[in-house]
Amino acid sequence: MKSDAFSRRGFLHTAGAGAMGAWLPRTPRVRDAEASLVGVSKWDLDTPALCVDLDKLEQNLATMKAKLAGTGVATRPHAKTHKCPAIAKLQLAAGAVGVCTAKVSEAEALFANGVDKILMTTSNVTANKIRRAMTIRKTNRNFIQAVDYEPNARELNDAAKEAGVVADVVIDVAVGTRSGVPAGAQALALAKLVDKLPNLKLRGIISYDGGAQHIKGFSTRLERTLQNFEPSVQTHDMFKRAGLSTEIFSGGGTGTYNIMTKVPGFTDLQVGSYIFMDAQYLEIGGESGDVYTDFVPSLTVMTTVLNTYFPGRLTTDAGAKALTLNKPDAIVIGEKGFVYNAGSDEFGSIRYETAAKTYKVGDRLELIVPHCDPAVNEYDVIHGTRKDRVEVVWPISARGHSQ
Amino acid sequence: MKSDAFSRRGFLHTAGAGAMGAWLPRTPRVRDAEASLVGVSKWDLDTPALCVDLDKLEQNLATMKAKLAGTGVATRPHAKTHKCPAIAKLQLAAGAVGVCTAKVSEAEALFANGVDKILMTTSNVTANKIRRAMTIRKTNRNFIQAVDYEPNARELNDAAKEAGVVADVVIDVAVGTRSGVPAGAQALALAKLVDKLPNLKLRGIISYDGGAQHIKGFSTRLERTLQNFEPSVQTHDMFKRAGLSTEIFSGGGTGTYNIMTKVPGFTDLQVGSYIFMDAQYLEIGGESGDVYTDFVPSLTVMTTVLNTYFPGRLTTDAGAKALTLNKPDAIVIGEKGFVYNAGSDEFGSIRYETAAKTYKVGDRLELIVPHCDPAVNEYDVIHGTRKDRVEVVWPISARGHSQ
Predict the structure, then answer these.
(1) Residues near A340 by Cβ (< 8 Å), separated by ≥ 6?
(2) What is the pTM of this model?
(3) Which one of B23, B29, B314, B394 would you mutate to disrupt binding with A, by most A Cβ within 10 Å of its Cβ?
(4) Structural domains in chain B?
């Protein structure tokens, strides 16, 4: 088929908009109705709506600060969780030494919105992304980049030179087989190279054990986390003996925040989920029980009941595009007998035998999300509420920034 | 607004609409670098990058048109798949009688970008969403709304009256237990009510069997689809006998497009995935084999290899936020021995025993996504390529519009 809609006229319009559209947002993303949402009850929002209870968010920030007091370990929270400059600023105000990003496009969005202390935990391995990172570095002295390959270190050095900067770099030391340079001799050799390259400045080590965060049961998690991290600790010692910078020794997460404090020389935690919590973290268990109660669930999705015709079932408007397919299932607050299935793209399906009330079409339900990071990534804004009223609507500026 | 939605005039029109309570752009989502991407090889794009091969997309549009020729059944493609006004326009140009949306916010985004023939397949059950829908209807005579409850029909009638319109409505007849009014007497009673309400105009029936689309094996799918749909057919006949409109009798999807044509009185197919295809649809099997080859995979995600240190493994930059957690796993084109795991939010993990080449950091891979609809929803733009070169960059205007 020769498509009519690829007509020259239509095509030129598209191209034309691109040419002139430097920062003209082509696709309006946020309704202006939002401004008028302040003061509205979260139970009256159009749904699905992502909400954070500000009292609980602040409680989680305060809890983390209190728990780390006197340990000598700081936080460098991972912004991939919230992708929201406003929340990054709250974390910095609560004493964080900086924030992390997973992607260069996240770093761009945060920096463009007034957050400058950024450590990007993934290496940029292509020329264009390295250029994007160095563009940030040119105007942001507090931007730190990760490296895990020698050729990549040389490319970063060349790009830093071209940008006229000395770029701050940390060595990403692998725990497991996902990312990073293997611990030990290879990591040390890479650090020595970075230390020598004139346009790079070695700042230390990042080393993240993704698998450790959700190990169920505190004692098992404690044991395995420290065991898995031992090669990184040894690498850290090798750096020290070689006179290389260990100013930063960063890693850990919400599941291991009170474990990593036991690691000698460890400087800061890349905690993410602690501000929000989710169904996944609730079930990992804490030091004193099967439910992880160190932090309180602050993040929820409001949804609306669409269908009540069928016995033992309800249909809602929050499916996989509102909650993701992560497990365990979303938790319906106040309805212990509800099993929530977000397997359909557009609809949630609830099965139940007992319910606290009789539901009718239009009723709202509040859900704890399965896994906070990818759920947040489905939304353009997060409604900050206090005593159930919207106090602020924050843009999730780095939403969808997976590059 | 007409088809020049991307022109300066179109943009101002959109911005102007904001003042009336529709849209106000706040967060620039699309990098200005995009304009310069035209002509670039998809193998050089920053990744993860969502791409559609335009030759294959056009082939799928042409195939559907050819397969339906002479059947008397039209397409009314579901825009929840692509959320992209440009693709909706291609479908209309290829003969579609309209498009569907699942959410009112999708309908708003499409209409704001020049698509007017819209049937919204989900009922709006709250006052504010009904108001949003009627706001569309006030300026769009081609907007059709679904209803599945009597009280809701009365609310729609009141809102239509307030908006000064007679709103077009279809009855959503349930197949299964997810959405819609139960087939038979309840559906008939609702239709009679709609027919009587002065500010509603009954246009017919929609009836969608979500579960049928992915039944493996054509003969089983054929049998079960027609069996499941029988109550809807009987309801359609009841409408006819009662002198109610059956002008629209819409349903079906990509997995049943060549089955629903056998349903008497059936008018149009809500096909979505046929334009893109995905790993899920490939495995449902076609009339002549285990692989569903009626349409060709046109949609892919480009990803970059980040880590090659560990034997039998590769790490890429496309994880759950780039591909979703849908199963089956993403397919690496050209590497039959690769097992792709997108279970990590930010990283893809590949396990392999044999590979067509030795990969190094920075190499690109091209992936067929697990399930096209939610994967598209992770991106702001889709790169339309021809012979691997970017020809156009389309905004996914309704991305994240889950309300």
Answers:
(1) A329, A330, A331, A332, A348, A349, A350, A367
(2) 0.92
(3) B29
(4) 17-51+293-395 (2.40.37.20), 55-277 (3.20.20.10)
